[in-house]
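Narrative progress, year one. The postdoctoral researcher (J.K.) led the effort to move from monomer predictions toward full complexes, under supervision of the PI. The following entry was the first complex the group processed end to end, covering 804 residues in total.
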Amino acid sequence: MFESFDALFLARAQFAFTVSFHFIFPAFSIGLASFLMVLEALWLKTGKGVYANLYRYWLKIFAVAFAMGVVSGIVMSYQFGTNWSVFSDKAGPVIGPLMAYEVLTAFFLEAGFLGVMLFGINKVGPRLHFAATCMVALGTFISAFWILSVNSWMQTPTGYEMGANGQFLPGPSWVAIIFNPSFPYRLVHTVIAAYLTTAFVVGAVGAWHLLRDRANPGARKMFSMAMWMAALVAPVQIFAGDMHGLNTLEHQPAKVMAMEGHYQSHPDGAPLILFGVPNSAEKRVDYAIEIPKASSLILKHDPDAPLAGLDTVPEDQHPPVGTVFWAFRIMVGLGFAMLGLGLWSLAARARRKLYDWSWLHRAAILMGPSGFIAVIAGWVTTEVGRQPWTIYGQLRTVQSASPLDAPAVAASLLAFIIVYFAVFGAGTLYILKLMGKPPEPHEEAVPTHGPVRTAGITPAPAIEGGQA
Amino acid sequence: MIDLTIIWAGIIAFAVAAYVVMDGFDLGIGILFPRFPVGRDRDMAMNSIAPVWDGNETWLVLGGGGLMAAFPLAYAIILPALYAPLIAMLLGLVFRGVAFEFRWRDPGHRRFWDFAFCGGSIVATLAQGITLGALLQGITINGRAYAGGWWEWLTPFSLLTGLSLLIGYALLGASWLIWKAEGGLQTQARGMARLLLPALLAAIGLVSAYTPFLEAQYYQRWFEWPGVLASAQMPLLVAIVGFLAWRAIGKVQNGGRDWTPFFLILLLFGLSMIGLAISIWPDVIPGRVSIWEAAAPERSQIFMLIGAGVLVPVILAYTVWAYWVFRGKVDETGYH
């Protein structure tokens, strides 16, 4: 089915497919690990059973999501070599150590303590168990730190020297490489995105069960916590996204031109194109609905500031405008929808109707997957927007791929598509099945053996011994 | 002056060895899985590795990621050369990894996920063994890139190494269960180990006899002075350890210690890896690229060495702790 494509296109399709699938799981598990940490901390502090039950309820979902994140992540760590070997050879001395640090500081931490987190509550006692939960949550964050540093270095490479053999070599300071110009913005924007993604999933699950039973204490608690996140963090995210955009304008102007649909330069104030159909052949946006001078106002904080367009960039360095333009609008649109839901929940809370407004609950269910869509749309914006480069301005995507035969890549792409949809489709169904059950007053632990026994969490003092 | 490249070769070798030690037995349990009776025995076999498999597999990521960081040229040549087996390995690991959770989530399809657990483990193991064989027999290189076709890895020798590793991991899995299980499951594992141990010794013998004739370098290593000293001892050592393992398996249920077979079989793996190192040293791609040709620049080596020096001991410490938490026999009340 892929005969007509060349090996490069197939390799790009494969990377896009596997990384998009993979990104869904960490986007959820980074937030969920922190959520679990908060729940367990609240339980240890207050001794209230509702937190312990919510912990067990979400731990089962976390276990399934995490397993999928692990296996799809191993694939990523080998894709660089199997499909992008020239890139790996050239960039390995710079990004390889960062990825090695990710393995050493994050993957082992997550994996090493996950077993205790999932199965060890009655073996190690609550405090040590809480420490294990914290280590897993910390691991997910450290992982994001390193891999986003790598990605950011590819977008805004700094701190390197060119070797005689064509390799990118580290300069005297690793700080210049790790903390490259786009990294702080990308890290903040992405980690907040992961928190919001989780919050909207948790909110949707809470809302779903509130519609069935308004009195369910677990559903009330999770819905309330999620709506606090939506109301407080969505505006922060819009601000962080704006900062990230300004940073991109400084370092990757062509990407912003594609996001904005600015084919032409605007010497005295660029319009903000709300909607339209980018027409790259004619170099214009058809059927554009625009606000005059608003783009200059947002990007330059001056309505009359001149803004360069893609006409100032050589044609062979243009990113695909249509994809970037649309992906960006999907992300921003969802961001404001999240803010809207957060504000609505504040209004409901102010009137003490948070658990009673069923339309708010329905909207929260509808917004459940919004985080995932926004995260993927944002990822597409930044990754397609930096084309045609793998290392921005230095190494082209065309020059990065492995010397593979097209049939080999076609076969592997087809295999990934079939396996991922089957396996992760099944996993998603299992997660939805778990979410479909209301949180019970005595949530059972992660089942690992034979007939599942309900072992309600016992208050801290009642657990004796078992300290390793 | 200390040669950082040699240190890094040692670290990568350690990561690969740690991977084989830790993930070998849990892949092995996957390989043997359909042989265990449905129900309690299968659940117990799975439970004996459920809390640790994820950490075990992370050593594979360190092997891959570490190779990219420390020997980027080797990473860039080896991975495209072994494209098909590596992709198969990754997909196999996907199936077996999710099966740990999915089989509990969907009792209606448990048979399917048990099958996926076993099939994924077999595919991943075969692929790893084939990878080893393909590297030993030599790959086609031009400049800084792989220059062969996408089926070059497929030879009788690579299939032999694939099959050998399958036997080896299965034996590790069986001896792990001798250690961790009781009753019927332990007895069954003993029976399996008694079949697999002679098979593994035969496989080691075949691969060892075949290898010197693949490349002149290996031949010289093993049959000329001073390598001939090692080649004279190796078969004897393997035979001794094999005999001890056989006896240990026999004695387990007559007052013998239940953990000795597992560690003796690890010792067999250790001897095989030492033999491998004797053959290929100092190459990272056997017969093609030396560790110095493929090494990352000194700045990368130093930066990573600081991290590895601090973190690898810490990782080993909490890995040991995680194993300690789940020590002892796995039984009905194992992980509740």
